Amino acid sequence: MSEFNNKSDTQMLVEKLAYKLQTGPKLMIGDCEMTLDIDPLDEYHIKKAEKELRETPEMVQESIKILCDMLGEEEGLYVPLDEEFLKRFLRPCKFYPRSAFKLIKRFYEYRLKHPEFYEGLLPSNERAIFTSGILTPLPRRCSDGVRVVVIEAGRKWNPKQVSLNQIFRGVILNLEVAIVEPKTQVSGVRVIIDMEGLSLGQVTYFTPGFASAIIEFVQRSLPCRLKGVHIVNQSFIFDMVFAFFKPFLHGKLKDRIFFHGGDRPSMLNYMDAKMLPKKYGGEFDFPDKPIGDPIYEYSCGYEEYFDECNRYGYMNEV
Question: Most exposed: 104, 218, 227, 239, by fewest CB within 10 Å?
């Protein structure tokens, strides 16, 4: 059984969040402001959604009705049934309601199965990962509307201060904030993983269990269009890390992992120069000074949103 909320509940929560961030301190990454974009789809994204996701007003209403009926019959699962919330799962499933229903179940089952990633998952509890500088969302979208997150998991990562679980918790926070945005729901995200400076000592912290859990999330439980994972500055040491993940990769994800090494021009085949940092072959002035503390303070503005999200899911073990 699902929770029947007022249709505007999710939208009201996101708008309240956006207002709080708009009226509070600004987050500048380089010379560009990082903002939460909850505006309705523009003409470009409306056409893209129709072409790529089968999204038309008629299809939206029909799919939501069917999905609501399916969720209403599911024992122990409590989620909002408003349009804004359900679109987050329908869009990556191209508005096939049965597929969206299965994705919702897998998403909340994963949360239950992996408390190490989700228990107490609030920005205020994750100061270490934010201030480490390992994770940085880029403020500009790609020209195709895709959001980009940079993970610097080599030189900036001190395993004694930030665990792999903490890194992944930070990734989840970034992704869940990204999918609040309608344009990101339509266009998706790309991830840049910078392995410069990875050491043999860091490799020892990886395990097959951790790799399996990460791939399970990305391939089966992520309510987001993952458009690509771009590995840069990798050395032979990275091959040892990738060996943990490779056995679990299949299908689309396997085809969307790209290895660039030090080949900067190749990055421009996937991301345009104006939003890509100079150190990856673009034109954007990525800041040299630490920006972890401002990102942490900015992220804490999302606290109410994540607290609300933690209310939903399976109330009993599945």
Answer: 239
Q: How far is residue 185's CA from residue 318's CA, in Å, rounded to a whole number?
A: 28
The answer to whether residue 30 sits within a structural domain is: no
Which one-letter amino acid corresponds to residue 261? G
Number of folded domains in the chain? 1
Which CATH number characterizes residue 162's domain? 3.40.525.10
195, 153 contact by CB (below 8 A): yes
**Sign of the torsion formed by the C-alpha atoms of 303, 32, 231 and 238:** negative
Helix, coil or strand: residue 75: coil
Burial of 4-27, coded b for 16+ CB within 10 Å and e otherwise, reads: eeeeebbeebbeebbeebeeeeeb
User: What pLDDT, in 10s, does the model give residues 232-281?
Assistant: 999 999 999 999 999 999 989 999 999 999 999 999 999 999 999 999 99
181 lies in some domain = yes
Question: Is residue 7 situated within a structural domain?
Answer: no
Instruction: Return the bridge partners of 33, or none.
Output: 28
Report yes or no: 153 and 286 within 8 Å, Cβ to Cβ.
Answer: no
Q: Which residues of 286-295 are buried (b: 16+ CB within 10 A; e: fewer)?
A: beeeebbebb
Domain of 127 in residue numbering reads as 13-19+35-317
294-307 pLDDT, tens per residue?
A: 999 888 877 888 88
